Amino acid sequence: MRQFGITSGHDEPDATDHRPRGVRRSSPRGAGRGPRGGGPGPGGGHDGPRRGRGFGRSGGWQQGDLPSADDAQSWFAGRLPDGWFDAVDVTVDREEITVIGSLSGIEADTDAAEAEGRISRFRADTREQRIAIAQEAQARYQRTVSWGARVGDTTALFTHLAVPVMTRLRQPERAVLDTLVDAGVARSRSDALAWCVRLVGQHQDEWIAKLRDALVAVKQVRAEGPAA
Question: Which of 48, 168, 170, 171 is the most buried (most CB within 10 A)?
């Protein structure tokens, strides 16, 4: 499968620039710091002090705070305009909903250059509508919405999140990452770790799919609860 990314600067609003009202970009530490308990500094803002955790707040949403997104695939299937996609895949985690659709009315065997052009045109032509849909979905699910499009074997992700994940590794595990860096496979330990995760996802997808199916069953049983 051929993939190409479309990068952008601050003028690209597809995902991170159009979050629900009240979500602000982070500022350098100490920038605009105001009096304790208020002002534009950390812990405060134009609407007064912030408390707790939530979407766009310090610390982010915790897993228990998030609304369920089990119906996201159905919601987007009903909300997306007719004629955009022949099929759509919606992937959800705690931070992000990624929507990737197969562009409607385009042959799957279209050559790569034309496919990239079609995807770029779709992105430009639908930007305002996608922003509006993303805002609705973000208000409903409290997750950032990112977009992508597919033509045959060519897939492009538009603006999307790269979320840092902290972990602790012992020396033998660090040695694996350092070997990948020294061999030029990865630029850094974090890049090497991401490479390992992608490799597992590519080669153990059947096993991971079974784990996900098992988790769905657990959620269903948990939702039913004990009989009254």
Answer: 48
Identify which has the larger pLDDT, 211 or 103: 103
Q: What is the pTM of this model?
A: 0.59
Q: For 126-146, what is each residue's pLDDT tens digit?
A: 999 999 999 999 999 999 999
Output the six-digit token pair for 71.
């119906």
Residue 156 gets the label, from left (phi > 0), alpha (psi -120 to 50) or beta, of: beta
Local structure of 219: helix, strand or coil: helix
Looking at this protein, which amino acid is placed at residue 60? G
- Residues whose CB falls within 8 Å of the CB of residue 103, separated by 6 or more in sequence, listed in order: 84, 85, 86, 118, 119, 122, 149, 150, 151
Tokens 């059947």 identify what position?
206
Rounded Cα–Cα distance for residues 27 and 59 (Å): 15
pLDDT at residue 5 in the model: 57
Query: Looking at residue 216, what is its pLDDT?
Result: 76
Return the amino acid letter for 210: K
Strand, coil or helix: what is 76?
helix
